[in-house]
Design a protein that fits this description.
With about 425 residues, this protein is of the alpha/beta class. About 35% of the residues lie in helices and about 25% in strands. The protein folds into two domains: about 5-70 and about 365-415, Urease, subunit C, domain 1 (Roll), CATH 2.30.40; about 70-355, Alpha-Beta Barrel (TIM Barrel). The chain is built from 14 helices and 16 strands. It binds zinc ion.
Amino acid sequence: MTPQHQQRQSVDLIVTGAAEVLTCAAGAPDLLGSTSGGVAVDGGRIVAVGDVSGYAAELVVDARGGVVLPGFVDAHTHVVFGGSRAQEYAARVAGLEPPPGAVVGITGTMAATRAAGRDELRKQAAGRLREMVEHGTTTVESKSGYGLDVETEIATLDTNRVLQQQLPVDIVSTFLGAHAFPPGADQAAYVEQVVQLAKRVGAEGLAEFCDVYCDDGYFDLAQTERILRAGLDAGLAPKVHLDAYSHTGAAALAADLRATSVDHLNLTTDAELAQLGQAGVAGVYMPCLDYAVRHPHPLDPRRVLDAGMELALATDICPGCWTTSMQLAIQMACRTGGLSVPQALRAATLGSAVALGRADRVGSLEVGKQADLIVLDVGSPEDVAYRLGRNNVSTVIRRGRVIHEANPAPRPEETR
Ligand SMILES: [Zn+2]
């Protein structure tokens, strides 16, 4: 053996002592790419997965017999908003009408968001994003859509930009000026305003995606197409809130435009899902939203997989579905959606990265990818679906830096 072989390669950080490392790599036959050993990280990137005995680092994270996997990617959120709809939610779960003065619906949140101002918007969203990180999320999509006027839509997207600089989480910004029509608006004039705003958003680099809420009572097929095409012209890739409460026929449009993702899909037909699968469009499943609104037609996510689509998972945190935990989304995806644990974990990592056009950078533990990974203080991947409502995350690493540690991290045997 030459001296070179005896010397271990020095890197920034090593994670060792895992019961299992889930790479979630594309093409892994078990979906999870389960292996043993650890992960070596240098310069913010993964340099080795599995056997890391050839590496040395000053910073060694002991997984203590836990599970290591990619940081969660939350593919659909409305995390920047003002106010709360707790009164509306509490009334509706009890089958009552919200009390007078309560903030109700998208337009209620619109008023609270406009009134909040930039500092307050940023403060409120930052608190939620910190919680998301503590629950293992390292990449978050964040939509505008509660301003519904030029000033507040721009302020929301600018909040995404500022929070990306201030917080240790990757924020993927989406322009959703077409979330709803503001009360009293002339529809044609509002669509024109959204089209003009999409141009500005693209020119100023304030978003990567342009999204439209296509549904009965929201934006119709023709309006959706006009806005998505304007977004494409401005460099914004299309996403669609599709068929959540009515069948719109916009699946064909999304396939035609090669949308990056279609989200909700409650009333989308199997034939349309197959068409979307053919076009390489990812499907985003939001089981917490279906639960929070007690949706009459909750999506069966197995239909999305059967259609050959990449399945993504999201919290859909918004005033009507207030959860910061991708673990809760996984738990619901398994129990209420019928996904297997590997299917749900894969959707929460690589699947969601595909739905954000970032599968080349995040979503799996592979050499060269961004070193976003989490350590769970449980002995098996199944525990994530099984331990309902518990935060199983002990360590969060983003771009090779430890950004969150639950203290003290209990060993798996202590939590049994
Ligand atoms: Zn949404």
